[in-house]
Amino acid sequence: MDVDEDAQEVTMDRPRIRLTSVTITTPRPRELAAFWSTLLGWPVSVEEPAGDGEPEEAGWAQVRPPAGENGFTLNFEYERSWTRPVWPSAAGHQNATEHLDVEVDDLDTAVAWALECGAELAGDQPQTDVRVLLDPDGHPFCFF
């Protein structure tokens, strides 16, 4: 099948669209931002407290690459009805709907660092040159 056969017909020029960040939901955004800040060596650039009527752990936080370093901004948004995902997916459980892929220079050293920062090594490791880890709230991420 030719891919173009199923493409939607576009009648206007594509506007400039830029992907800049990923927002991760969590029951404790400032704590999770601190984990990712330590793991990546990036600063926490924004921390907002809980809003009126929200629990103390609510709020919003952001981690962004330091000046001169490339990468997506990571936003951490409070989720009141948080359910920790399971990985790999399992019927009847909350599945992870996304994960972050992180390139590393030395897989073993990077895994050791992530574990020291508070990550957990996932029980299922489907590839020999990739390590699946879980952040403190259970979001999977892969080192390769």
UniProtKB/TrEMBL annotation:
Species of origin: Auraticoccus monumenti
Any matching Pfam family: Glyoxalase_6
PROSITE patterns (UniProt xref): VOC
Keywords, comma-separated and alphabetical: Dioxygenase, Oxidoreductase
Molecular function terms from GO: dioxygenase activity
Chain spans, region Disordered: 47-66
Listed Gene3D superfamilies: 2,3-Dihydroxybiphenyl 1,2-Dioxygenase, domain 1 (3.10.180.10)
Recorded superkingdom: Bacteria
Location of the VOC domain: 18-144
Protein known as: Catechol 2,3-dioxygenase
UniProt keyword Transmembrane helix, yes or no: no
